[in-house]
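worker-03 picked up job from queue 'complexes'. Input manifest follows; two sequence lines, order preserved.
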Amino acid sequence: MDLKHIAEVTKANVIAYKEGMNYEVKAAFSSDLMSDVLAYVEGDVLLMTGLINHQVIRTAEMLDLKAILFVRGKRPAEDVIQLAEEKHIVLMCTQYTMFSASGRLFQSGLVGVEIGS
Amino acid sequence: MKPYMKDPANAAMKLHYEVAKDDFARAGEASSKIKSVLKQLGIEGGVLRRIAIAAYEAEINLVIHSEGGTVEAFIKPDCIELYIEDKGPGIADIDLAMTQGYSTANPAAREMGFGAGMGLPNMQKVCDDFTIESEPGEGTRIKMVVNY
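worker-03 finished. Artifact:
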């Protein structure tokens, strides 16, 4: 699913690296725990989170993630947005909660990350 | 587990970074620099990813738990070696610290999305070879090797 479609479905604003909106993701992972993101996420994945600090951008950078969707109306500070611009990571903000945003995207055909037992 | 030993032989390049205690805003800069150097050298994506995760988890641990320390990367013909050393406080029970879900992180660390007891197990998972040594009152030393 491309990021434009994701922004439409979740009624999200794009706040960093708009140039990357044509990028496609194969799955999504919703979590406020960056350690779990580091442990389980691989490949072209959209990260959905309510955390808005530098570490979210750093975590995405380490995993080569191209996009983050902030939920619950959260918006990171300017220096965090700037870091995402530098790293070419698309940032989007939605008013939906994590569950509602995830549900809408799942209903539109975006799948979750499968993790081993 | 092999004893911790720094092995500079055959290292084509050595990277060295200082990491300060409690500096959450800058946490990840050392790992970011290591990743960027390795990318420029053309290191394969899977290896790059594993090194980035190992370095970043270690760097976060230094910020959260240590009195400050260093992250070093030795780039070798057949592997990348990461060396993490800190000035304390040391780990009393390493087996317990290595248990998934066990954490002594403070609320500040948890607010940043860490402190879930995933760091050390995750570092071990992404490496081909993992060594940890620690003494309470001294410090912790970790060596991680990722083969190409």
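worker-03 released lock.
Strands of chain A lie at 13-16, 27-30, 45-49, 67-70, 90-93, 111-112.
Chain A touches chain B through 22 residues (CB under 8 Å).
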